[in-house]
Amino acid sequence: MTKILAAGDRFIRSSLFRASLEHALGDRPAEIVELEFAWPDEPFGRVGEVDEASGDEDQLIAALEGATAIVTQLAPMTERVIAASPELRLIAVSRGGPTNINLDAARRHGVAVANVPGRNGIATAEMTIGLALALLRRIPLSHASLLDRQWRGDLYRHDAVGAEVSGAVIGLLGAGAVGAHVAKVFRAMGAEVLVFDPYLPAGALEGVVQRVDSIDELFARSDLLSVHARLSDETRHVVNAERLRLMRPGSRLVNAARGGLVDYDAVAEAISRGHLAGAAFDVFPEEPVDFTHPIFTLADQGKDIVLTPHIAGASLQTAERAADGVAEEVRRLLDGEPLRNPLVDLSAAPA
Predict the structure, then answer these.
(1) Which domains does the chain show, CATH number per domain?
(2) What is the pLDDT of residues 142-156, one digit of tens each?
(3) What pTM did the predictor assign?
(4) Active site residues
């Protein structure tokens, strides 16, 4: 009987992996073994040579004994773990960025690897829109005032009211799966949506967005700028002091992509001097965050700053899509079909 390890955590539970596997495999006999790690109640980190992992190598090796496949989000699939699991044929990781998988080791040992790209695209897009609306309409500030037992009628003053999406110029730095969804929603709400994305195919989002020729133009024309780029050496601190100075006085910034894309010191300075009206962040340069950073000081002072703890991609549907995605990869492996999203192709791996 085929043994499959469902190595879950407290977001994508092992029981959810099991349910998806049972649905995907139908009547096929399989022994599904469950293992569950403590993330997010305990932070993930580096295990061996892999990053963003949760769990212990020895515990994982023991659970993988005799297993043909593992479905997981954060299990530390290191060289040591893979080498100690000679019957393993597939690692199905339920995330887009498999930093917890040693892909080179999997390739050397002839183990296929598949992932679930785009699993949290809708959730992240919706969170981005929520952050933007909260920032534009000053919702957190208004909420906090009522909790402080204050009735802030002054928030109806002309110099204190928020702004609408309708009629605003919203700039998107990147228009992949997340940015494209954000663009469609903001356009439907009546915004003029600008996009800078050199990788966006010709004709994509036609009738929805206006493409601009440079990043600087995007910053200069946007009332609100939302970041949706991938983090790389080229894009690190793509939002910096120089570009923030190009933005219109009173403009706003949203980042639910990656903390490294933004120079947070520069944003704090721009808000302090009144050039930016505010910012909303779900991601940070360090996570867990440095609470001494000026961004938190400014938020404590009542500036329009909306902060959430990197939860944009976290939804019930994200967990379900992720579990279903890896279960489908296991089914494909066992039925001899090509994997849907291969990172390491078993057919190309050495025997």
Answers:
(1) 2-119+315-348 (3.40.50.720), 121-307 (3.40.50.720)
(2) 999 999 999 999 999
(3) 0.91
(4) 258, 287, 310
